[in-house]
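Here is one chain, start to finish.
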Amino acid sequence: MQTSKKRSVIGIIFDPSRKQILLIKRRDVPMWALPGGGVDAPETPEVAVVREVFEETGLNVQVLRQVALYTPINRLTNDTYVFECQAISGSLSSGDETLQASFFPLEDLPKPFFFLHGEWIADALQQLPSIIRKPLSQITYLALIKYFCRHPVQVVRLLLSRIGRPINSR
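Its structure:
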């Protein structure tokens, strides 16, 4: 029996000036992040990112380009497809997984903010002609332990979310 590999998607949505970015504040782990989530079978990553952005922000988007594919080095992450998208309709709203969705200036991102997403925003801003392919080397077991020592509640909430038992405030 062949098992399918888990895949994730992230949507990067800039305002028309490319000086602000759309972020969500998650319900399960109350921190700011880029919208995204899992790819459901038999979806393509492109279809999944459009669905996830809508579910988390209320915006309908179209994919402009694939920015990157980040690959795991351990079991803490999935293959992650990052797309730059453009809002085409809808209005910002929270969802089942989000407390808030808003645009923020790139030079003044809210806290707490998921550090890795800052790197992915920088990759998107490069507007390279080809897809970036990098390992997710920042997400390690040691890094998780160190983060747990500083932010135990957030890590427990994240781990509960990963096993399908999220703590939501809705």
